[in-house]
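mind reviewing this stuff:

——
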Amino acid sequence: MSGWSNEAVRRRWFVAIAILILGVYSVFGLLDARSAADRLGQACRDLDEVQTKISQIDRLKDGPRVAALELQSPAEISNRIEAARQAAGLNQAALLREQPTDPQRIGRSDFEMRMTTIGLAPSTMVQILKFCDALRDEKSGTMVRDLRLSVPRSPENGNQANSGDVEKWDAEMTLTQMIFSPKSK
């Protein structure tokens, strides 16, 4: 080793240390790049989620409303029921009962609900469903909330009145209208 001078040994140590430092920086650079790739992947997933939410908002902004801003009058409710009866192909006698109630506040909220109980004479399931569908109006917060079906009985002998090809049902339903009505009014 006599051919090696102290200067050459120092150079070799300097090169080894430089290579070691570059290696450490390279490792840190790779770790940082991996971390950046993970952040980029998370950002892409977040972007997809935001785009999905924007699509949902766009779809829902013109969709059904939960509550109306004003209460429909009893005459408007009667007109809605009459139009639904006609749309379902039910005759005048099929409407047995129409009983609206006064609006009631829902808990401590800024919403009120008006309920109207409707009774139908024996009708087919298709007629009942068409009737319920025709009653619904998302813009005014009106929908059928409860529907009870029962088998009609003939008054003479108490037997079921469904004798024939078409099955008919007595129907009772609750038509509701949700109204936004702040308590400070």
